[in-house]
Amino acid sequence: MPNFVAETLLELLFLSVIISSAITTSAADDPNYEACQPKRCGNGPNISYPFYFVNTQEHYCGATSHGFAVNCINDEFPVLNISGNHYEILNISYTNRSIDVRLWNNASDSVCPPDYITNTTLPEYFGYANHIQDLYLVSECRGVLAYWFHGCHYLALLPTRQKSIGVARTNCSEIVLVPVEDNGGGGGVVNALEYLANGIRLNWTASDCAPCENSGGRCGYNTSTLHFECFCRDQPHSRTCHDQGQSFQLPSTYAIKITTTCLL
What we know:
With about 260 residues, this protein is an alpha+beta fold.
């Protein structure tokens, strides 16, 4: 009998250690939840799912392969890479799933657009929220257009003057198309910065994060299944923090022994 009591006491002591460890673990926030805390860059908006900071956050905090990676330049400018161009993020509406961006210029006091720009093609999961038009940025031009550059690498033309566009196609070695909001203005040679500074509004498509956030969670995805996941303080859940997750359970052998001991 003494041996049985000693064995039982040892098992209870062992169980108390396991339970204590489980309670301690559950008291701390889940590491995925901590990793996906919304962040800012400079005076920019909060960045959270589907967007994420590529260098300071875990990749599972955002929609990694769909163009939502954000860079924080000089700890001041949050930028989105679109077709190799840096677009500064001005505002994000997670409710409307829209984002306001403008072509970022590393020389903020310059009277010229950036020197190196590529044709802008939106990633698959983005679209234009408003009516846009193409701003033609031309360079290395001959003839009359050569007198309009005023020291800038690019000259800006709007396509409403087809004659100007035709002259550009004939006399310029480089033509880059950049989307700008259609304000109904006139065509021909225009001030590029006036159009680029206003930026454009984009819509995006991604998993609905609102149910997860409303339940106190933070959105991300499972790195094994690549499916959406709601990171909560206790553990990851499928959609919201109210969904059933993986809970701590004692091994059945010990559960049986506890019951037996209590009966004795």
